[in-house]
Design a protein that fits this description.
- The chain is mostly helical.
- It has a domain at 52-120.
- It has 2 helices and 2 strands; from the N terminus they run H-E-E-H.
- The protein has helices spanning 2-30, 52-124, and strands at 35-36, 50-51.
- Strands 1-2 form a two-stranded antiparallel ribbon.
């Protein structure tokens, strides 16, 4: 049933596009002998008459070109946003690595201090006590 609905949907879309193409062709055919004079920011001579079909073709092509430019600009905007996010992730990763290196250095320093203290107490002949604040017991 799902495949049949998809098939009906596709054929309906094809029919709609075909109908739209026929309507556009009919409008162009009916207006093929009409002419129009217009002003377009000084690019055209307002006294000269142009065939309306050419005006419609120019309008359609310029609309498609402008839509393509906006589509391209939107893609560029998205790419710049992704680059900025990637830079932020790289900066955060670098900061995390630096912090990790700092912590490793501190850990290494603490280990070295602990080892030097253990070596110092071993050479003095005393056993390092578990609790240095506990009072020593007197053997009587």
């Amino acid at each position: 049933m799902n495949l049949a609905l998809k098939r009906v949907k596709v054929y309906a879309q094809v029919a709609l596009v075909g109908l739209l193409v026929c309507v556009i062709a009919w409008v162009l055919f009916k207006n093929r002998k009409n002419e129009v004079a217009f002003w377009f920011f000084g690019f055209t001579d307002p006294t000269k008459k142009y065939n309306i079909v050419w005006v419609l073709a120019w309008t359609a092509s310029s609309t498609l070109a402008i839509a393509r430019i906006f589509w391209f600009a939107r893609g560029l905007w998205r790419n710049f946003r992704e680059l900025r996010r990637a830079d932020q992730v790289a900066a955060a990763t670098q900061a995390q690595k630096e912090r990790s290196n700092e912590l490793e250095d501190k850990q290494r320093e603490l280990d070295e201090k602990l080892k030097s203290l253990e070596a110092k107490t071993d050479t003095d002949g005393e056993e390092p006590s578990q609790d240095s604040t506990a009072p020593k017991e007197n053997d009587e």
